[in-house]
User: What shape does this take?
Amino acid sequence: MFKTFSLWCDFIERAFLTEEFAQYMKSWELKGATSNPAIFEQALHNPSYANDIERLKKQGSSAKAIYESLATADIKKAAQILRPLYDANPQNGWVSIEIDPFLCDDVAQSVDEGRRLFRTIDEPNVMLKVPATEAGYAVMRTLFLEGISVNATLVFSPLQAVKILESLHENPKNAQAVVSVFVSRFDRACTNLQQPPMLGITNAAWIHKILQTKAPSYLRTLFASTGVKGEELPSDYYIRALLFENCVNTAPLPALRAFANGTQAPNEQNDAIASCSVDELQKRMDSFGIDVAALSAKLFAQGIAAFKDSFTNLLSRLA
Assistant: This one.
């Protein structure tokens, strides 16, 4: 496996951090972790949160204040567990938390919340997750210039990636950034295309190659949405298809487990595109015969809506 390829865990939950996370860091060579509203919504089903939720409710805390109290505590714990990796190499050991998705079009409120979350967690190896909206580019730039590292999320198109590059081209305080390129959602949206699915992989490789040719060393591609739905594909299909230099793959536990227990070698899909140039990858995208820009916009809108729905459901549970 490439030395500059890093696996991150796309899951955060209190009991998992206490019981398994450090073990998997060692046995699976995990280098970081990510979270989002859907992950926290799932995590809060664990009864280990029940006492704290009840205590905070009795104190009169709002649903969002309860969520932030629980989420920032989990992220702080994860950051502390990952800190030795960060201290040894500042490209490793990161954990991310997302700004309220309902603020995705509000620059001022997003920046204020990002600053507040970062101060509350008070660990250097925390990335603020910011959706790649028009407002989000300004949010990323403001936070980054202040030395707050950024995970630019919900990236589906090369245009988004280029705008992120433009937003983060100045780095006076040596922050780090990743561009979270979503993969499998393309294939789930276009089940009529060739099998095994290649649209999401080709699009992700295309964006990664563009970033490789233009991005500074402090900004890397992160392949997200790499879980497999159903039993038609191996659980680690998208990990093995995207084993590229200088990138990160954040994956759910089943995919990480399958990869750790498998060959950990690139699959045929990786071999087919790893050596392609930017132009060759664009031609491959054109060969699918779909309006990629329109599909990217649709998937982005669905992604934002899904994060908002998860956040709404999460807050409803805590009300």
